[in-house]
Design goal:
Shape: globular
Radius of gyration: 18 Å
Distance between the termini: 22 Å
Low-confidence stretches: none
Number of strands: 7
Strand content: 15-25%
Structural class: alpha/beta
Strand order of the largest sheet: 3-2-1-4-5-7-6
Oligomer: single chain
Order of helices and strands: HHHEHEHEHEHEHEEHH
Helix content: 25-40%
Number of helices: 10
Length: 280
Amino acid sequence: MDAAAFAAELDGLFDGLLADGVPADPRFAEVADAVPGFCTPAEMAVLNLAARRLPAGEAYLEVGTFKGRSLTGTLLDAPDRAYVAVENFQEFGMHAALSRAELQAVLDRLGRPVTLHEGNCFAVLAKPDTLPAPVGVYFFDGAHTRLAHYLALGVAEPLLADEAIVLVDDASWPVVADATRRYIGRHPGWTVLRDIRAVAAYDERWNNGLLVLRYRRPPGARRAMTFDVRWRRLVQVYVRDPARSLTWRTLHRYPRLIPLAKAMVPKRSRTVPAADHPVA
């Protein structure tokens, strides 16, 4: 993936400033109207550009597909490549069977081959046959915890092409920003291309922010998880995720507990701070 060429085209996607988030192509707004979800037209425009610039022999990977809005926007005029999505069908009050059927219906309407893996992304991505090619574009919109976002890069890094674009959603939340920057500060090869900040929570332009990263594999680097990633992945897969799954199942059975569960989440970690400069 030519990250420099991708970055050079970003501003041209929009009418006016990138920070204003108004895509020149009206089809992304049409997708937002047609498919439920949280991905904004501006975010879809960025994902779509990445997919359209994806070279042959590389794959597109998305973690956290929900009901397929982001994938629908991504695939507009995108070339024939390997598109892979991972979803666990647990959050946002999702009932697995119904949510899976809704997503599959959207994917069927697209008429494009998309490989869908159901389950814990940190378990799925560790399997050797999950990706058919090195990942040139990676979009993470999975669990928003510090541990999950550290692993979002660490588990995926061995799967990336020698040069790749990585997009992290909800990046204006402190919990996401802190974990992401901690990881890239400890591991070579990562560069922030754009930090597109939201001006408020669930901003209609950029939702909760989007971080655009470039990864270039350092010479001689092994395609393997580092020790700090391996032990964190074990904690996530065998401790944190089972507990989280139990919590969501309990909330499905006892919906009156949902307000209590929400009250236990530190609000500061998922609050968009005031920013003087929405794009850095």
